[in-house]
Design goal:
This protein has 5 helices and 31 strands. It has 537 residues and is mostly beta strands. The chain starts with a helix and ends with a strand.
Length: 537
């Protein structure tokens, strides 16, 4: 069919026509008056792309023919990335200002959140939350998601009433229904429980294992009797030059080693595998006996003055007294706290006394005969790491994680000297010079410091042993029996030797694959040094 303009041309006719034909041309208004009512236009309707030739929804004719309404900058709806920077007032596009105070905004926000309806800021009616309408809430549904107050019983506001509910009021008891039939799990649990309370797991009984062929020789002597050729005498020590033997038997790291007093024909070791072993040194060099009684790793061991007994403390918060010869446990001591170190009183007349440094900042003195504590030294501010006897065993020195040194008189719970300096660090190992005039401390800042055992207990600032690395591991420091050499373990598994007189390192060598924890110089052999480490050797 012909278009309307072509029909108008046919009706108009040509120049040779004799009569004037009457033609009616419709009036065309270029800018008609358009009256827009806000109630007829959807304020939320907008074309996201003006260049799009197809729509993904079916709009009405009124929506298509209506004039475009929107912000002052309609380009912001067509792509923020293409908007020139001059037209942006924020980095994401253009934001129009609206006069809305804080009170009105907060009121409309909470109304929209709680009831699902709030006034439109542009004045086009109300804005309804569609998610609440889908849940059946909001305006027109009769349900509004608001918090409801609990109905209080009568007399709840009267403090004298039994139904009073308040900060100190009586609360309702929660009654839990107990099933009438027990499951198999409940029956198995009741079998392990007597009297309605579950019994605590019983601690394993102490026992010992002898690894040799015979406990006594043809003369009836046990292994604690030293060989006849060992004689305690003064001798000149020298650093070792080669490795002689390796004892391996602990499944985990070895925390401490101790020579048998005076003769050193036996070596006692405590391991983190909760086992204590005693080794032969001069004959076949094998393990002789294993002491079992701790449930966790053993931290420290200590012989008494003649070596017939020794103490052990572990991470299971138990201190045990053992018979070196038979392996029997002679006693167990505990105050509920963990012991970090134990020491017998070296005097023979006080052989029934020992002290232990505890994790609760105390040094506790026990009487072995009665099994009770007879004194507490409570002045430290952190766990006690070491206990060292000085001045003919009349005094002892303690170090702690509070980075202080305290000196005590025996059986007097008040420290006679308190050493604390800003530069001091924790000192996890202490030993006494053979002359008795000095004591050495292993400081956690990778140095060994020297203090006097005289009345003033001053630090000897002219002597300082450095070069090794022990920060964070608490490696043991020790001395040769003649007092000429200082020895220490290392965090890298090395053993370091210093000359006492000049305070200079003379040698160091690799001894363990992991941290070298303990070092002990043999009391008779001039160049024998025993070491232990976290590699289990």
């Amino acid at each position: 069919s012909a278009s309307p303009p072509m029909e108008l041309l046919r009706e108009y006719g040509g120049e040779d026509s004799g009569e004037d034909a009457g033609v009616s041309v419709p009036a065309v208004v270029a800018a008609p008056e358009v009256v827009v009512s806000h109630s007829d236009v959807n304020p939320h309707f907008a074309f996201h792309d003006a260049a799009c030739s197809s729509l993904s929804f079916n709009p009405t004719f009124e929506a298509i023919s209506a004039p475009v309404e929107g912000p002052v900058q309609p380009e912001s709806l067509m792509g923020l990335e293409s908007m020139p920077a001059s037209q942006k007032n924020v980095w994401t596009g253009h934001v129009e200002e609206t006069n809305l105070n804080d009170y009105v905004f907060a009121h409309n926000y909470y109304a929209h959140t709680a009831k699902g309806v709030a006034p439109d800021p542009q004045g086009y009616g109300d804005v309804v939350d569609s998610t609440m309408e889908n849940r059946g809430e909001g305006p027109g549904t009769g349900r509004v998601s608001v918090r409801r107050k609990r109905k209080l019983p009568e007399g709840s506001k009267d403090p004298a009433s039994d139904n009073f509910v308040g900060p100190w009021g009586r609360r309702d008891e929660v009654v839990t229904e107990v099933p009438t039939e027990m499951t198999e799990e409940h029956k198995a649990f009741l079998e392990r429980v007597k009297g309605g309370e579950e019994k605590a797991a019983e601690a394993p009984k102490e026992k010992t294992i002898f690894h040799g062929k015979e406990e006594r020789d043809y003369l009836g002597r046990t292994y604690i009797v030293p060989p006849s050729y060992l004689v305690s005498r003064e001798h000149t020590c020298r650093p070792p030059t080669k490795q002689v033997h390796t004892w391996s038997g602990h499944s985990k790291g070895v925390s401490a080693i101790r020579w048998f007093p005076t003769y050193g024909h036996l070596l006692l070791s405590s391991g983190l595998d909760s086992k204590i072993k005693i080794w032969d040194v001069f004959n076949d060099r094998k393990v002789l006996r294993t002491y079992l009684g701790h449930t966790r790793g053993v931290r420290d061991v200590c012989f008494d003055h003649d070596g017939k007994r020794f103490l052990s403390c572990g991470n299971d918060r138990q201190i045990k007294l053992w018979d070196t010869e038979t392996g029997a446990c002679l006693g167990s001591f505990s105050n509920g706290k963990q012991a970090y170190c134990v020491k017998f009183n070296p005097d023979e007349d006080k052989k029934n006394m020992f002290v232990a440094g505890m994790s609760d900042r105390k040094v506790i003195q026990w009487n072995i005969d009665t099994g009770e504590t007879c004194q507490e030294y409570d002045r430290h501010l952190a766990s006690v790491n070491t206990i060292t006897f000085i001045d003919n065993n009349q005094r002892f020195v303690t170090t702690s994680d509070d980075k202080t040194i305290r000196i005590w008189d025996w059986e007097i719970p008040v420290d006679i000297k308190y050493i604390a300096e800003p530069h001091m660090q924790s000192m996890p190992s202490v030993c006494v010079h053979p002359s008795g005039k000095w004591f050495l401390t292993q400081s956690m800042d990778n140095q060994i410091l020297i203090y006097s055992t005289r009345e003033r207990f001053r630090q000897n600032k002219k002597k300082r042993f450095i070069g090794h690395s022990c920060a964070g591991y608490g490696c043991q420091v020790n001395m040769s029996p003649d007092g000429k050499y200082v020895i220490s373990g290392d965090a890298n598994g090395k053993v370091w030797f210093w000359e006492w007189r000049r305070s200079r390192p003379i040698q160091h060598f690799n001894a363990h694959e992991r941290v070298c924890k303990g070092v002990e110089w043999h009391p008779i052999e001039a160049s024998w040094v025993a070491t232990c480490g976290w590699d289990g050797a």
